[in-house]
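Dear support,

I submitted the protein below through the web form. The confirmation email said the job was done, but the results page showed an empty box. After a refresh the structure appeared. I'm attaching both so you can tell me whether what I see now is the final result or a partial one.
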Amino acid sequence: MVEKVNKIWMDGELIHWDEAKVHILTHTLHYGMGVFEGIRCYQCPDGRSGVFRLPEHIHRLFDSAHIAEIEIPFAPEELIEACKDTLRVNGLKEGYIRPLVFIGDGAMGVHPQDNPIRVAIITWKWGAYLGEEALQQGTRVKTSSYSRHHVNVMMTKAKICGNYVNSVLAKREAVRGGYDEALMLDTDGYVSEATGENIFVVKNGLIKTPPLTSVLAGITRVSVMTIIADKGMKIVEQRFTRDELYTADEVFFTGTAAEVTPVREIDDRKIGSGKPGPVTKEIQSTFFKAAHGELDQYQDWISYL
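What the results page shows now:
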């Protein structure tokens, strides 16, 4: 459950949590055309709070809106500051940030006409998305019966609200079957991503991740790819099949919510030793140090409050 905080930023104002309401005829509620982001703030060892790659997230929000033909009525710099203000006013040293751009009420039908574009920023406390145990021991995954979006069916480079119905269906199916997460294949049958995470596979020292076809360009994904390259490890963006995952040495997920989560089992098959491997643990450790502002070479990834 989301833990209630004091204030939500909405349309340029900080208002009380209970006052952040919308009309039942809000267009996005009916048709799913809105865009959003997920961002994390970490408390650093020196006591400061730092938001991980905040400008990159906000610029992706604007890219998503542009793809969706939504004009955000604020500048990127205003939303960057609003994210910080919302954390401060709620006294959150660490937390999750959810900027949401949606189409308000007015006209109904699939064409929103000149309905107002509304913007909200919500913050709350949120731990490990797949659970602390998953971060330490790895997570169990099942290949979904649902395919990831075709690139000309949905706009796969935009973080559009309605796109995530696909994820909700796949996640429910996996959890109902006793698994933690769903693996999603693209419409050609190749590994795409999970319901909210990018995927990496390690085999004989080579790290692979799917190319950005039907895959969202994850900000944690590109951060991890930078870490891998900086460590001198070999990484390629390449299509691969799910049976290549079965025989992998290691598999791990990346994402703002999931951070870097090892995968210990896919489709009832143990991955490697069935425990997080050395490559995954090294990348995970470096990522968390970078996200907490502990590494000088990645200081430009942190926006301090």
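Response: this is the final, complete result; the empty box was a page-load delay. The longest strand covers residues 95-103.
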